[in-house]
Amino acid sequence: MAATEADNPHLDQVTCGTLLQQLQQIWDEVGESDEERDKMLLQLEQECLDLYKRKVDMAVKSRAHLLQALADARVELTNLLSALGEKTYGGIPEKTTGTIKEQLEAIAPALKKLCKQKDERVNEFFNVQSQIQKISAEIAGTSDVVVNPTVDDSDLSLKKLDEFQAQLQELQKEKSDRLHKVLEFVSTVHDLCAVLGLDFMQTITEVHPSLNDGTNVQSKSISNATLATLAKTVLSLMEEKKQRLQTLQDLASQLVDLWNLMDTSMEERSLFDHVTCNISASINEVTIPGALTLDLIEQAEVEVGRLDQLKASRMKEIAFKKQSELEQIYAHAHIEIDTDAARDKILSLIDSGNVEPAELLADMDNQISNAKEEALSRKEILDKVEKWMSACEEESWLEDYNQDDNRYNASRGAHLNLKRAEKARLLVNKIPALVDSLVAKTRAWEQDRGLTFVYDGVPLLAMLDEYTLLRQDREEDKKRMRDHKKFQEQMSKEQESIFGASPSPARQPSTKKVVGPRTNGMGANGNSTRRLSLQNGSKSVNRDGRRDSRPAAPVNYVAIAKEDASSHISGADPLPSTP
Description:
By secondary structure, the chain is an all-alpha fold. Helices cover 66% and strands 1% of the residues. The chain contains 17 helices and two strands. It has a two-stranded antiparallel sheet with strand order 1-2. The longest helix has 51 residues, at 34-84. The radius of gyration is 63 Å and the shape is rod-shaped. It starts with a helix and ends in a 14-residue tail after the last helix.
């Protein structure tokens, strides 16, 4: 056999024929029978057939595997396009011809690219869903337990991604709004704690520990529970602030009242300016740190207690001061009261100890308030009475002026009296209308209240009626004097025509004093004499020595003397001409 291999130079090129030829040579040398040879050849053929079958089966399996891979690739490609929301993709070959491997090679780049795009899309979904889950957990207050989100591979479309991003934006906006509310609440709590003198860090930590971190704003809790607790805390602090402010304002009012009662100096009052500065402030206006601390309120309470004790020892002085204020109000309103009896009653109440000082002062304050209301209701009528009194004084002055024989002499101040007389005549002409208006308003006042309007103890309507009667009597006297003067002039003319001209009798010198400029209603000592009352402050006395029930005329009502009326008729007479 070795010689045969050495003799054959083409042994490397082995084929089935050369092998069969070599096998026959060996058989010839061995001397195998034809039967053995056929049997062996048949065996070889069977082994070759089995080998071919195995190869064919392997080829079939390989082809089936490739077809399955191609089908899977196409299915995966379709699924990727569906998941990504892509209806078409430009990288997929339109032709499906060629071998299986060629078709696989044609699909592979597009498949690879879509798989990469899918991975990127999954990462985007994961990031967005992670943020959504994180913010949702922060809002829900479960940020301590966060689970990674599960991305749905079946829907990775851009539309779905936009929906998640829109949801994320809404949550981010809600988070921003909540964070803004939290910061506002925290700032409000800080301001309230500063005003009330409370520990801010302790108060805010009790709400949530993350709120005391002033550096990392994003780490603050924004959950519903935190917001609700913050709102509750703010309401609680606001209520506490309201109560303290009301308490402090009450104490400040008491301090001011006590200071006013006891005439406390401004220097002593200034020690509590930090208390009284908020006496009329609203709850939102009090922002100064420490303005409503418990120490400040306690300090004010101690001072009020001290002043209350001091007030008790000065009760009589304070009560008489209020009584003086009440008397002054009634005096300005021209209402007469029994001041001696009122003061005796105050003394008896204080000495008996049957009434609390605070109750007595409160009752007097109530009397003062009622007196002010009554004075206010009388003000309009009193103003008209004042005008009437001024007009009556001018009328009285004008009567005196008209009876002065020297009023036209070129004396010092005569021009001033002339001007005053002109103004007085205008004012006197308005008296009837003024009286009518005053009567109407007085009657309306009395009907409205069911009371008589009394002026310094005298019914005002009675005074007006008497003034009207006196004015009518005076007008009648003036008319009689004018008629008498005309009669005398007529008699004088008749005598002249009978007996001839005769010198007129010399005029007797006037007994009136020279009238000079004076202040309306002021006496020689500067005190006012315009008190509208009866003569000498009492009612007139009749011939029997008894008091007349009807009020007499005021002192400024001056009747014209009959002996002088012939020469001085009225303030409206023309001035005599100079020779």
